[in-house]
Amino acid sequence: MKAKATLKNISSLLGISISTVSRALSDHPDISATTKLKVRELAEMLDYEPNSYAVYLRTNASKVLGLIVEDISNNFYDSVISAIEKETRKIGYSLLILQSSNDPEIEQSCIRLCKYNRAAGIFIALSSSGTDMAPFRKLEENGTHIVFMDKVPDDEGFDKVAMNDVRAAVIAADALLEKKHETIFALFGDKEFSITRNREKAFTEQVSKLSSGTKLLTGYAKDRISAREQTRLALDSQERPDALFCMSDEILAGAIKAVQSSGLRIPEDIAIIGISNGYIPTLFSPEITYVETSGHALGIQAFESMMNHLNGLTNPISVEVPVRLVRAGSL
Length: 331
Prior knowledge:
Blueprint lengths: L6 H8 L3 H8 L7 H13 L6 H8 L4 E6 L5 H16 L3 E6 L4 H13 L4 E4 L9 H8 L3 E5 L9 E5 L1 H13 L5 E6 L5 H17 L4 E6 L3 H13 L6 E4 L2 H14 L8 E6 L12 E4 L2 H16 L7 E4 L2 E3 L5
Parallel strand pairs: 1-2, 1-3, 3-4, 4-5, 5-11, 6-7, 6-8, 8-9, 9-10
Antiparallel strand pairs: 10-12
Helix pairs in contact: 1-2, 5-12, 8-9, 10-11
């Protein structure tokens, strides 16, 4: 097996000190351009790779970022991960991608793994709004920066990046109310999360404000299966809705399964609108009208927040990513 190239090998071959080699590779201003070029050319020829652990011990800064989401197969988080990974790679960092399965205990084990790998920062979508914030404050105090994204805590003092949930819900309500529906069934997610509370409050207030004659029914679903069941119950009730609002892609997918099983026509028998990353609505015929919440845009903004901190801007900020209505054939 070929021996791994080291700083000592390079220094011996060039007849210069190990410290000079190290500073040349880190682009230190005290080293001449000629020496830097010689060192880099030889390092590339020998396939030299820096020891990341040694770099951390010397500089107290790793080039690893952690990312924790509840489900990496989720279409929205897939877009978030793709955006962050691409930007992370551009700056020479590595991204450690972990899945919490919406379980606080697994989430904590993911955090411990990030600590073990000396992550300089962690992107995280919380598994529960009731999560104890003390461990995250401890991480910040010890130099690991946290950027909460999508599912964020109510606590101040952290960088938070989320979609403009209030605006998304208002746009969806307005689009339904334009059609003068008599009964709307609005299906929301886990009530523990601020994202659910924000979207529900904005949607119900907008319906109440603009249309006193519209009856609003609400339900809650934690996953696709429960969304299908909740929708089936609503469609089988005496107050069958003529319009359906789904606050997320997962809920939308489950709810439409129930609509299809009922034999109802879209939009003749029931109109549908959702809040979506944009992919799921295109899988149905007619395609579903939705308010776009872009995972890619959120990922880019979360990365910018992380870079701002790592570059010395330490005041925590909360950012809301813009949303927009995408009209299709379901209204």
